[in-house]
Amino acid sequence: MGDVAARKIAFESWTLEEGAVGAGEPPGLRVLLASGRTCRAVHAASCLLEPAEGDRVLVAWLGDEAFVVSVLTRAGRGPARLSMGGDAELRVEGTLSLEARDRIVARAPNVSIAARSWLVRAADAVLSTDRLSLSSARALLDLRAVEAVLGAVETVAERLVTRAGRSLRQVDDVDQVRAGRVEVASESTLSLHAHDTLVTADGLVKMDAEQIQLG
Questions:
Q1: CB 74: neighbour CB atoms within 10 A?
Q2: CA 97, CA 144: separation in Å to the nearest integer?
Q3: Separation between Cα atoms, residue 61 and residue 64, nearest integer Å
Q4: For residue 33, which phi and psi values (nearest 5 degrees)?
């Protein structure tokens, strides 16, 4: 019972007073109180909204200590800034939603996202990076049209399968294939055309058809 009374007395020793944040340099906030006094107040940890010059604030006094415990009204139209010293963690038991009328911007030297599933929907998406590394056990891409402008592409795969209704490839310089074995099969016509054609083999060259025309 004595502890409860002591806490009540300590609480009643606090004084609340309204004031306006004035211009000044840290440490603390320079507050012009309604009583006409000027004080240096500390931004209370529970007041997440960072006070700015001209804001109406509520100051709590205890002896020589003064704390800005609340921002009553804001003077400017600049962005409201939530400030927390040190590391911070936001924890919710249900769903956390972020909604903005214009945009959401995240800035940090490193950003890490860990989730069981990740879904992104956008009308337009732009990814700009100096280096991109993707690691996945399985990747499925369903794309209607792809336009890629790449300086260099290097693909390393144990097994590569490509299926397409129609395929067109244009190479301005050298197109080179190195393989242990190459097979080309066409159900109708296979056409090879060049200014000069050279076929060489270390072993056997065999041509087998119902009709062979040369010249």
A1: 15
A2: 31
A3: 7
A4: -80, 160
Which residue shows structure tokens 């309604």?
34
CA–CA distance, 39 with 62 (Å, rounded to integer): 13
Read off the pLDDT of residues 90-124 as tens digits, 9 standing for 90 and up: 999 999 999 999 999 999 999 999 999 989 999 99
Domain map of the chain by residue range?
15-73
pLDDT band at 11 (very low <50, low <70, confident <90, very high): low
Arch. (CATH architecture) of 15-73: Beta Barrel (2.40)
Q: Whose structure tokens read 């509520």?
A: 58
**What digits encode the pLDDT tens for the residues 146-175?**
888 888 888 888 888 888 888 888 889 999
The three-class DSSP label of residue 12 is helix
Sign of CA dihedral 34, 35, 39, 43: negative
User: For residue 92, what pLDDT is reported?
Assistant: 93
Q: Is the peptide bond before 79 cis (omega within 30 degrees of 0)?
A: no
